[in-house]
Amino acid sequence: MDCDRLHFDKPGSCPHCHMPLQKASTIKPRTKVGILLFDGVQIIDYTGPYEIFGQAGYDVYTVSKTGQMISTAFKMKVQPNYSFANVPQPDILVVPGGQVNAARKDKATLAWLKSVYPQTQNLLSVCTGAFILAEAHLLDGKTATTFHRSLAKLRKQFPKVKVVTDKRFVDNGKIITSAGLSAGMDAALAVVAKKQGVGNAQKIALHIEYIWQPEKKFARGEFADVKYLRGTHRLIRQLRKLSSRIIFKQTQGDVSQWDARWQLTTGQVDKVWETIAAHYDTHHTLSINKQTAKWRFKGSDQSDWSGQVKLEPVAGKANDYQLIVKVWQVSKGK
User: Fold this and answer.
1) Which of 34, 44, 254, 266 has a 20 to 30 Å separation from 124 between CA atoms?
2) pLDDT grade, residue 334 (50/70/90)?
């Protein structure tokens, strides 16, 4: 509560919450958790860890460059607790992601981050917050992860960082980076586990009804669509020009297979198929016939994979077709 920070000059009860006052010298200082905010910050990136650390009993507060109200990625208005000028030194600092381009190029933000970092016990980035840490050279020589759509960009822009795709979060000891969005909660729970024991982290996860399964090693960057179907969105953009309607019907799979489907309405089915065939011909297609294309390729670990794209008429609906795109690891079957 806000009155937890108040101090009084004599014993008694708090006039706000009516709890009995305790002698300050007998109270162990609470772990301070600072959370950086900036315009365009992703909501779950900072509220997820805020909830975890709050449930752990830590003193959690937000900070922005000026301390003035910021607007999140979805236009939520948030009033930070502090500015860089008056924020208490955090024991744990959380750097969330979102629309980070302005923040990662802001000299004041980078200077403040580098100034408070030496006194922190842990520095935790969530999602594309890793780009802010990398810009400040705090990830040089370290292993890191980020949002699955930004992994390649982080690897390209910061060659001194070892970027991995198979981790939900990466613990370098003091610096912890997490993958996108909800992965920040997993990283925050890992910090609690380090400081208070796994049991307390499990208790918090159960209390907030969050499925915390660190042993499952869920990493979105390892899923088959992220690794091997990344160009499909460009194909769909091309097909929209040839179709009066495209409906996204399904996307599901795991690390060893993926199945994505769309339903489209078009009077130019031959041109649609030509576009599809041309797109997948760049994948060393083995065969193209009767609006079906198949190909084989090597995975990132040199395992054997197959791919297939089909354009099937929808029964009873003129000019309606189902586009089915699949990839699967051959050794693990279809």
Assistant:
1) 254
2) very low
Residues paired with 259 in a beta bridge: 252, 326
**Phi-psi label, residue 166: left if phi above 0, alpha if psi -120 to 50, beta otherwise:** alpha
Residue-wise pLDDT tens digits, 60-86: 999 999 999 999 999 999 999 999 999
Taken in order 62, 64, 67, 73, the sign of the CA dihedral is negative
Higher-pLDDT residue of 287, 242 = 242
What's the pTM?
Answer: 0.87
> pLDDT by residue (tens digit) across 112-153?
999 999 999 999 999 999 999 999 999 999 999 999 999 999
Give 332's pLDDT tier (boundaries 50, 70, 90).
low
**Residue 167 to residues 45, 183, 334, Cα–Cα distance (Å):** 17, 10, 25
DSSP 158-205: -TTSEE-SS-SEEE-SSEEEE-STTHHHHHHHHHHHHHH-HHHHHHHH
**Residue partners of 330: CB distance under 8 A and separation at least 6:** 296, 303, 304, 305, 306
Q: How many CB atoms are closer than 10 A to CB 260?
A: 21
Tokens of 65: 């460059």
In angstroms, the CA 22 to CA 5 distance is 12
Query: At 111, is the secondary structure helix, strand, or coil?
Result: helix
Q: Which amino acid is at 28?
A: K
